[in-house]
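User: Earlier you gave me the apo prediction for this protein. Now I'd like the version with 2-oxoglutaric acid bound, so I can compare the two side by side. Same sequence as before, with the ligand SMILES added.
Assistant: Got it. Here's the input I'm using:
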Amino acid sequence: MSNARVTLQELVENGHLNTVPDDFLVSEEDRVKLEDGSCSLELPVIDMAGIEGERRGLVVQQIRSACKEWGFFQVKDHGVPLSLMKKMQQELRQFFDLSYEEKSKIRAKTVGDSLPDEGYSDRMSHKEGRSSNWSDKLRLYTLPVSGRRYELWPTHPPSFRETVEAYAEETDKLMRRILELISDSLELETSHLNDYFSGKYQQVYQVNYYPSCPQPDVTMGLRKHSDNNVLTLVLQDGNPGLQVRKDGQWITVKPVEGWFVVNVADQIELLSNGRYRSVEHRVFVSSKPRISLATFHAPTNDTVVGPIPELLGPKERPRYKACLFSEFKESFYYAGWAKALTGKGHLDHLLVV
Ligand SMILES: O=C(O)CCC(=O)C(=O)O
Ligand SMILES: [Fe+2]
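And here is the structure of the complex with 2-oxoglutaric acid:
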């Protein structure tokens, strides 16, 4: 689309898109069907209250089964204050309600063929043969603090920066606690996974804005994919959209105020030698706009990622080759995300056959 210099939200709100343009169409088999999400299965819910005490054993068991069976779960009583979660959501709504001109002050620049990495941008293809997702995004590098580019952070509402800083700190603590539980569930030392990453993570804060859609059944907010990082924490608004693949069926994740969705991402699959799988998920759209905030907890680029030696032995050979996280990301983007999300194809070349 040559007029793709404005975001999708702007095109929709100005009445320029009454049908879904070709770039956004998904194949028949990737469309949301009525029966998807109608199944009564629900994601496991893990109550994190009291995990330093008597409940730990039970919670570790629940985490093990959630990671094995689903690769996804929801957490409640996780320690991040509800007031902060609500403030974050409210300020994000305020940001997306600003005029296009105001939001564009932090518009990300497209570099060559690549979709922009940081700042406010659309997800429309600027190149022949590539597909678009029915969403815009705001992406910021929030941790480590030294990697922040404040010039790309919204300045409206005025408290936004302070709220993101508090949110980054709280969610980082939560992810580390979840990684301790996952280490326990793999029968490793509690600190094993955090030590593996030398206690250093990159946190990426990604807001997905899914504008109202005139034909929700022919497109996708985000096509099916797995996340390339370690763990992802999703804060949803009240509108459903996220679907998780479970035994070949697509299950819709019910939004519940105060809960987070946690998903096991590719690095846990690699490190656990495939015991835990990073699971495909996707997002459908509707006539109502939706906002989600995905916080990605990722290794630093120079981390070698591959099966943890302590999990291997004469009976268990490595199923994946090790590589640098920076190389992993390159193949991830090469395999698909930037063109059209294509599920998990990017992991295939690391498989030891
Ligand atoms: O919008 C959502 O609920 C999920 C977003 C997601 O999968 C992602 O940002 O990778
Ligand atoms: Fe995702």
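For your comparison, keep in mind: The CA atoms of residues 150 and 201 lie 19 Å apart.
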